[in-house]
Amino acid sequence: PALPTSSLLIQATAMSSQQDASACSLPTEKVFSIQIGSELFRLSGASLASDAPSYFSRFFEEQMRLTDPSNVRTLYIDRDPATFREIARHLQGTADTRAASVPWINQGQGIIFGLKTERNLSNFSQTRSSTHIPRDIFSSPGDSPNFFTLGFGAFFASPSSVFPGLDRVGLLRPPSIVAPSVPNRSAEIFAEIIHLLRGYTLHIRDDDHRAALLRDCRYFHLRGLEQRLIRHHISLNPFTQRLEIIVGIEDVRPSGLQFANGSSEKATGALLKYARPFVDETASDLILEIGEDRTVFNRQMQRVNFFGQTKTRMESLVQVVGKKFNLSESQLESLPLKKRQRTGEADDGLVMIKTGQWRPILQQGENGKYSLVLLAVKVDAYTSQRHRNRERNFL
């Protein structure tokens, strides 16, 4: 007959305890004394073996080997009894009831004593709140190493590597440790980042909300999550049967740029493809989105000029494309920016582009030089100040 669920749980727990005890030579029925500050704790060999090897199991194993088992001395450690009470509950198999307000030292002390299962939770202080972080939450590509793994890695390493010269055998007072704290970041944004890292979706309210999430992702060095949060759109073009990705020029990373060197593109140029680092497995045809009123199209010269940071980003993009294509600077055609004074409302061939989506193509000209050609996919533009003023909003 099938066993009830409770019986299966008890059986699994017993098997786990037997496996843990096999790594420790302490007799399971014998009781060992540990004096922590002014309080005496008595733990059985089974409890000490549940998270062995540790500082405690090694100490009493050495005592059993060198002396008569009936004369095993008490282990004295000058630490806080209230803190060790949580460690004793852990060794006895009691469920972890520590709240987020429990100081991190209550968890870190067990780690210093070599308790392996105490390493699974990290505590992190964010402004006035404290958060438990599972260590496997950073398993996604690009999310490690980060602020947390680098900050806690030292505390979760062996005492010999964290504190050089520290002798575990004679350890009576482990060095004090504190949880990393970042008081100048938003606890609400951090909670949403942890929510996303756990695999849940999050409703991004507006551009300011997205910018705050991205800013803290960069601060904590969560590169994979950052790439998942950037503004983008991936779709299949039914006319070309190719995937296309729309990305803002400010979010393009050099490591994600690729070329589509198919036979069909040789006559028109090399299409640029893009895959978000750590996120996209396959690259899609790149469509750049450029906004902020930083683009001017000269209809007479058939050239696009940029202003401010957009110009700097485009120049950097041209340099990256040249390196990807193994082109020297002499083979690349620069992007000149010609400023012209406008007088009156006469049509002088300039179109101010508010927001535009462009398909970049690397093309070779008649002079043998390569230039980055932008094919307009969709633009929101105006040709005069009158049209621009119509779109102004009152404060």
From TrEMBL:
Matches recorded under InterPro entries: SKP1/BTB/POZ_sf (IPR011333)
Coiled coil region boundaries: none
Cross-referenced Gene3D superfamilies: Potassium Channel Kv1.1, Chain A
SUPFAM superfamilies: POZ domain (SSF54695)
Superkingdom: Eukaryota
UniProt xrefs under PANTHER family: BTB/POZ DOMAIN-CONTAINING PROTEIN YLR108C (PTHR31758), BTB_POZ DOMAIN-CONTAINING PROTEIN YLR108C (PTHR31758:SF2)
Protein name per Swiss-Prot or TrEMBL: Potassium channel tetramerisation-type BTB domain-containing protein
Organism of origin: Penicillium chermesinum
